[in-house]
Amino acid sequence: MKITELSGVKEIARRADVSIATVDRVLHNRLGVAQKTKEKILNIIKEMDYKPNILAKRLASKRVYKFGILIPNDHNKAGYWKAPITGIESAYSEFGEFGVELSYYLFDKEDRKNFVEMYDVIFEQPVDGIILAPIFLKESMDFAIKCLENRVQYVFIETNIPAARALSYIGADLYQSGRVVGNICQYLLEEKDNVLVLNIAKNEDSAEHLEKRYEGFKDFMLETFKKINITNISLESDNAEILNYELDKLLKKKDVRLIFVTNGRVHLVAEYIRKHKLKNVKLVGYNYTIQNIEYLKSGHIDFLICQKPIEQGYRAFVALYEHFIAKRKVNNVQYMPIDILTKENYMYYEY
Amino acid sequence: MKITELSGVKEIARRADVSIATVDRVLHNRLGVAQKTKEKILNIIKEMDYKPNILAKRLASKRVYKFGILIPNDHNKAGYWKAPITGIESAYSEFGEFGVELSYYLFDKEDRKNFVEMYDVIFEQPVDGIILAPIFLKESMDFAIKCLENRVQYVFIETNIPAARALSYIGADLYQSGRVVGNICQYLLEEKDNVLVLNIAKNEDSAEHLEKRYEGFKDFMLETFKKINITNISLESDNAEILNYELDKLLKKKDVRLIFVTNGRVHLVAEYIRKHKLKNVKLVGYNYTIQNIEYLKSGHIDFLICQKPIEQGYRAFVALYEHFIAKRKVNNVQYMPIDILTKENYMYYEY
DNA sequence: CTGAAAGCGCTTACAG
DNA sequence: CTGAAAGCGCTTACAG
Question: B214-231 pLDDT, tens per residue?
């Protein structure tokens, strides 16, 4: 309005008849300002509806925030964990590059000790915030406690430990994702059919999560069909021979119409179906991985459920960015969409 | 490395032994720099792998870019078009606020003339970039030409006009989304079944788009079932009575097992199914709207296909941002994922 | 408890 | 064709 109107801190300082240093002190709630001056400035800030210019802030501030990434490495494997890293890096390049430093602490997901080793490194070169996949329950709780002690913020992706009270959890609602599988499968089944649900996990800590998916699935099924026959088996190995042996046994006993694998190992079952040329068994499982997509394309897998691993990483970075740099409140829980992939829509999924 | 190492333009200037103003001229490819000086500076830039600090750039630059939004208003309606606006505004608040001004040119989607009126306004208060839904074909082509003449960049969302060569198109691959419907429906049908595909559109310009969806659906169906019976009907009205009359006729003639509505008007058919208590007709259609979701919840609609209207808006803003502010190359075509919604996963979709 | 001044890495007149 | 200087809206020592 006024031609000579200054903006931002200068204008506040002018109106309050103080220096911008004092305004800055009030803005950051620092000590050493007379109560009267403080109130006056606070009022002016409210009056002006002052919004700091985040650009200027970041440019002027020498502060560099250090964000760490503590997730499994799977170099040689199909690489499910590359996806969140892609997402993190894309968020970083979009609005993190100045004032944020990224460091990687990748661990072997079959090796509990390695997880602990890696997280110990973090506290030697302290970071401000960390993005982690808490796949080892107890160790992750320990880590969370150490973070609290060291005032390190942490964001969980993929799986949650509600008790650990992370800054944010970004991932799927496991129970509900099981219901989604049920919802789709109702169209693949009839009343009297036999269904096999397989939990294939080497790490016992994930049993609980797979169980939640199974619960969701089962609940939906029982609401829909009265006499559906569901068998739930857990295998603690991903060895193909063991799996083949078990499947031979299970499929011989009953006429199974549908197999639901509660995680990304569904490709192992797909391979079995391909080898044995089974025509009448529908197969549903989890995760966009190279192997799974191949079997989706070839028709051995009918549906894959997926929870946007790339975007999980993206949002995890944004959560830390919002907390530290934009200083905005972050939601504790950010449930991802539960996506349904088929051979006709997977190609547009990666985006 | 060196303690006294300056960064950015200053360092370039020091190395080239010129002033930063000259560096700036080269950086922006402005006239008035001796060829020799220019080359020297260019070499240093390459050598240093110089990346401008976008924060400083935006802070120093007084330039404000004006982005316009030319999409339908649907105040009273179910509000499909609110979603892209939400997305645009969220991108704006994330990294647009400084240096971007947003203006709205909302038009009546039933009124061709109003579209033209609104776009005429745009050229009176010229904008730099515009996000539009080109739902009127010819008028949108005219608009595109005027944009080219006035050096205004335009981004299409929701529907594309490839010939118009927009900066970017952000939306679905229509043919492929029809195939996705086919892919799901294969599980709802058997060989000899009758299928009804309904195009319900008042605006004749959308006929072509609905046709593409139908093509995708039909192709998939014919690849999967040899003797499937598909009837394709187009209605140029969304009047409930007319629709009821047509549906009475169509459903009496044949035992229809599945109805596929090629756009968001699927709720009209859902209402018919509800009223007539039809139990054996599956229903599939498009778009996350309040009405459609209600019928998804109640089970009258089995699946909805959706293409992230919120994110379309978000990305459209980002496309303009990247082009004007970050000065990065923007992809001409950004196909959105083709999402499948059911009564069990719709609740996590809006995010 | 308070202020003057330099600086973040750019852009933008203006002078020569 | 080139450079010196002011300024964007903040932060950060430093001095008093």
Answer: 999 999 999 999 888 999
The answer to whether the CB of B284 falls within 8 A of the CB of B181 is yes
Whether residue B142 contacts residue B177, with contact meaning beta carbons closer than 8 Å, is answered with no
Give Cα A80 distance to the centre of its chain.
12
Mutate one of B221, B342, B350 to test the A interface: name it (highest A CB count within 10 A).
B342
Judge if the beta carbon of A32 is closer than 7 A to nucleic acid strand C.
yes
Give the whole-angstrom CA distance, residue A155 versus residue A87. Answer: 14
Q: How far apart are CA B158 and CA B116, in angstroms?
A: 19
The answer for residues whose C-beta is within 8 angstroms of residue B21's C-beta and 6 or more apart is none
Terminal-to-terminal C-alpha distance of chain A: 45
CA–CA–CA angle B224, B266, B313 (5° rounding): 95
B9 CA to D4 C1' in angstroms comes to 15
Give the end-to-end CA distance of chain B in Å, rounded to a whole number: 45
pLDDT digits (tens, 9 = 90+) for B119-174: 899 998 889 999 999 999 999 999 999 999 999 999 999 999 989 989 999 999 99
Could you give the 3-state DSSP secondary structure of residue A80? coil
Instruction: List chain D nucleotides near protein: any atom < 7 Å from a Cβ.
Output: 1-5, 7-14
pLDDT at B3 over 60: no
pLDDT at B306 over 80: yes
CB-CB under 8 Å, A345 with B337: yes
Residue B101's Cβ-count burial label (10 Å; 0-12, 13-18, 19+) is middle
Nearest to A129 by CA among A106, A159, A150, A108: A150
pLDDT tens-digit series, residues A35-69: 888 888 888 898 888 888 888 988 898 788 999 99
Residue nearest to nucleotide D9 (CA to C1'): A56
Q: For residues A260 and A268, give the distance between their C-alpha atoms in angstroms, rounded to a whole number.
A: 12
Q: Give contacts of B 71-90 with A, CB under 8 A.
A: none
Q: How far apart are CA A350 and CA A79, in angstroms?
A: 14
Rg (CA), chain A: 26
| Cβ neighbours of A59 in B, within 8 Å | 53, 55-56, 59
Tell me the C-alpha distance between A7 and B293, whole Å.
46
Block mean pLDDT (10 aa), chain A, length 351: 60 88 89 86 89 88 90 74 91 84 90 91 90 93 93 94 93 95 94 92 86 96 91 89 91 92 95 93 94 95 94 94 89 94 92 51
- Are A312 and A170 spatial neighbours (Cβ–Cβ below 8 Å)? yes
Q: Tell me: the pLDDT tens digits for B72-105? A: 987 655 678 888 999 999 999 887 778 899 999 9
Other C-beta atoms lying within 10 Å of the C-beta of residue B84? 27
Chain B residue at shortest CA distance from A340: B340
Among B77-91, B241-255, B282-296, the range scoring the smallest mean pLDDT is B77-91
Q: What pLDDT does residue B313 have?
A: 95
B305/B340 Cα distance (integer angstroms) = 5
Q: What is the pLDDT of residue A77?
A: 58
| The predicted structure's pLDDT at residue A3 | 37
Residue from the list A94, A97, A340 with its beta carbon closest to the beta carbon of B340: A340
- Lookup result for tokens 């080219």: B148
* B98·A54 Cβ contact <8 A: yes
Closest CA to A217 of A335, A338, A331: A338
- B173 interfaces chain A, CB cutoff of 8 Å: yes
